Protein: Tetratricopeptide (TPR) repeat protein
Amino acid sequence: MRAALDPAHEAVEIRRRLAEADPGAYLPELAASLNNLGIRLSQIGEVRAALHPAHEAVEIRRRLAEADPGAYLPELAASLNNLGIRLSQIGEVRAALHPTREAVEIFRNLIIVEPRAYLPELASALSNLGIRLSEVGEVRAALDPAHEAVEIRRRLAEADPGAYLPELAGSLNNLSVSLAGVGEVRAALDPAHEAVEIRRRLAEADPGAYLPELASALSNLGIRLSEVGEVRAALDPAHEAVEIRRRLAEADPGAYLPELAGSLNNLSVSLAGVGEVRAALDPAHEAVEIRRRLAEADPGAYLPELASALSNLGIRLSEVGEVRAALDPAHEAVEIRRRLAEADPGAYLPELAGSLNNLSVSLAGVGEVRAALDPAHEAVEIRRRLAEADPGAYLPELAGSLNNLASVYEAAGDLSRALPLYEQALADLEHVLGPDHPSTLASRNNLASAYKAAGDLSRALPLYEQALADLEHVLGPDHPSTLASRNNLASAYKAAGDLSRALPLYEQALADSIRILGERHPTTQAIQGNLHSFER
Structure:
């Protein structure tokens, strides 16, 4: 990818000289070269450097479109789309909305005059708008453009499958992500499945062109299946995505090693989800090894991905009880993201907060609860500043950090500080995401657990009961979170002395957990331990 930079720069220099001598003839070509240069810079991780050519391309095409709208409005809309992507990449997610919306408006006006020519471009702009809206936390608003993009591309694909089926699959993937973002995890499954079906047919006819896209759709399907609690079913697409990308990477490492590392990360998460925590270590380690090699060769492009892989490895090590070993990748992820955030706060401060959260969990896991408070507090401070500037985008993340800080205080035995933080986190999530979002349900469960730990069963029990009822309604009776909630409610009944309600709930939770997750899963073992202690 770096090799493509020199000719991209040279093309801009040549066309700039030509445009200075003859603007009428060469300004359009200069704008095209600037667009191309911005894309190339973005591909190698120089996201801030990519912003200047993206802005200049918009400025040139805006002047051209003012003089001759018929000839240059489509090119202006394309440059506005690109500018929105570049702004998003440096963390200016709200600023990215304006050019993306303008691109949609331009294409919407163009299809009135010439629908056949510009409907595909409108669908692309709508897909981008849905992504941008999700990034600023307007997850419900993101659904409309995501749905409309699917509807347009479905009509186009019915008329010309060869030309538009690939784009329909992309829009279906985006729609499934948007539906999951508003907590409609079951509804998100259908478009994810359809995207895989389309791309599988395309890849069978033309593997070279469509296998990479099939792997991407399989990764998305695995994530969606996990979200609805079908953790065993999620393993097949996760494994297949790794197998495809491994073959692609063997043939062309430069193009496909980064994607292989991403699929390995996803596979490790899926394996952990079914309780195969030791098997999850190998793909997590391999993802780190690949991304470390890539980052050594090209730090700008791959250091952020290395930090993500290190975070995942730390979590996986903790799950197998290697809590001290988990500290090294957790610390390294923080160090990398701190350096990145110092150079570009807008793009990397949110990720730094996430790594600080993970580090605090790792420190608490080895009993260093006092040391865990510093990164937990720093994560809250960062996300509070981000949420003050853009509540829609960052209040849910702030709530996550408040939950984490509360859990550290709880581990330190300081429930007087933990409880207000749990309460604030739940209130924020109910306000931003709604009462039935999976993140809100998890936060409600956390607060109930804290009340129970404080001995306040009169407040804990109704919350536990509400949490279980909501989880059964939203995620289904067999979701792993529902199973854990059933176990929690049984424990609360036991603590309240209501043994007649506790015992059947424990027995149901254990039977369901063995059936769904297997006997070796940590949730199953936890329920089994609780039931054995109850029987003794």
